Amino acid sequence: MRAAVLTGAGQVRIETVARPEPGPGQVRLRLEGCGVCASNLTPWAGPDWMTFPTKPGDLGHEGWGTIDALGEGVSGHEIGQRVAALSYKAYAEYDVADASAVVPLPAALAGKPFPGEPLGCAMNIFRRSRIEAGQTVAIVGIGFLGAILTRLATDAGARVIAISRRPYSLDVARAFGAAETIPMEDHHGIIERVKDLTGGAFCDRVIEAVGKQWPLDLSAEITRERGRLIVAGYHQDGPRQVNMWLWNWRGLDVINAHERDPAVYVQGIREAVDAVASGRLDPSPLYTHTYPLDRLGDALDATRDRPDGFLKALVTL
C-alpha cells in the first residue's frame, strides 16, 4: 500500500509498504479518505521532541472507508461494510482499528466523506457544555469545530455569539445559525460588545475553540457569574496562565472538554452519524479543501496558513 511518512519538519514522502494485518478483535479498512487535524501542525513543525521518520500513515486519525479484512474473533462487522473508525495511521491506503472503535455508516451517507473523529469530538464537547434553550452562548474561534458547535447550540435553542478572526469564518458562523458575530480584533472592544449584547450579564456558556492564550483569556472575561467556560481548543504549544482571581470571583465552572477514553470518542461518532444521516447536521459546506495523498504536505500547510475560504482539509485515497 501507499502511505505517508513524515521525514522532517515540513517534509513528507509517500512510501510503498506492506499492508497492515488485523490482529484479534481488529478490522482492516480500505480507506477512502482522512480529515486533516490541526493537532498535526505541531509535529509538522518539527519540535525537539518529534522523532523522524514517522511510522507509515502516522498522525492520520480521521479516517473512513470500507472494511476489507476481519481479525480473529470479530463479530458484528462484515467485509464490505462502510464505516468511520478511530484509528491512528490513516494517512495511508489501509489502516487497522479495534472492532469496538468502528462505527457503521448508513445508506443515507453513501458516497459522502465522513471524518468521524472530529465530528464525534464536536458532539462530545456539546454534550459536556450542557447548552440549553434560552441560554446565550459565545463560541470563540470559528473553524470546523466552532461552526459545528454553532449549529448544535443554535438548534438547541441557544442564542449564539460567534467570535472569530477571519471575515470568512464569521460568514460561516452566520450561515450555521449565529445570532451575532464579532471580529476577533480588539480584546476590550469584544468584551464591551458582548456586555452590550447581554445587558451586562455576559454569557451563560463560552466555548474556547482556538487553543491560544489570548482567546482563553478572552473567553473567561465574557463568561457570566456561575457560567460555564468550556475549553475545546487544543493547547499544545506550552503552558497556559489563567486569571484565577476572575475565575474565583465569578465562580466559573471550567470544563476541559477533551476526551481520552476511546469508548467516549466512539459514542460521539455514533451521535454524529445519527445527526448527519437524519439531516439535523450538514457538515459538507465545511469540507473546503480536498487533496490526494501525495499532496498531504500541501494539506498540512493550508491547515496551518488558513488561506481565505479555508476551514477543513480532507485527504482522499
Automatic annotation (TrEMBL):
Protein name per its UniProtKB record: Zinc-binding dehydrogenase
Domain Enoyl reductase (ER): 8-315
Requisite cofactors: Zn(2+)
GO molecular function annotation: oxidoreductase activity, acting on the CH-OH group of donors, NAD or NADP as acceptor; zinc ion binding
SMART domains xref list: PKS_ER (SM00829)
Species classification: Bacteria, Pseudomonadati, Pseudomonadota, Alphaproteobacteria, Hyphomicrobiales
Keywords associated with the record: Metal-binding, Oxidoreductase, Zinc
Family in the record: Belongs to the zinc-containing alcohol dehydrogenase family.
